[in-house]
Amino acid sequence: MTAKRFMYLVYQVCYTNNMTQPHAKIIALVGLAGSGKSSAVEYLTKKGFPKIYFGGVIYKAMDEAGIEPTWDNQQKFREEIRRREGKDFVIKRVIKNIHDLINAGQNKIVLDGLYTWSEYKILKHEFPGQVVVIAIVTPKHLRYQRMIKRLERPMQPREVDQRDWSEIENLEKGGPIAIADYFIINDNDLTQLHQKIDAVTRDAHFCKSPEQC
Question: Fewer CB under 10 Å: which end of the chain, C or N?
């Protein structure tokens, strides 16, 4: 994709004038499989923050296409629809959902499932100074252990590696993780993970009230 084409796509997904829209704080959580990203998202949503799930856009499109919503199908469909419809297929719809929440009075929003470098750049352009990316990072041997023990979609180490490579090579997943604003090392239990999330959200001025952090 040329730089000119990319900037055209950025322009296409801008739904409102950034100078007049209400200011919001948007946290996007990123991480590889088994890092604990979903646990972090769940912790924040239980505090009352609204969540937008990128995968929900894909699952809705799969449902409309009559495709069974399995994880393998979702991965293949995400790659295929990006090739067919453009790299902005998901982010255009996510941005509309964000604006809908902001217009409804929500100014603290959690994003679950920011995958690609292209999505990251479009999101930063649409909401300048409002997006904070938090990467949940875990040593690979712990990620292997967690993925083997998962009740839903357990994976062997070889499958974890294959998934990592596929997401990094085909979905540009490494970029948003590498350039994140904050890194949380999740190498202990949930209590420590929650404490680290509280510290980061305080520093990012994400809390509505002190008790939320």
Answer: N
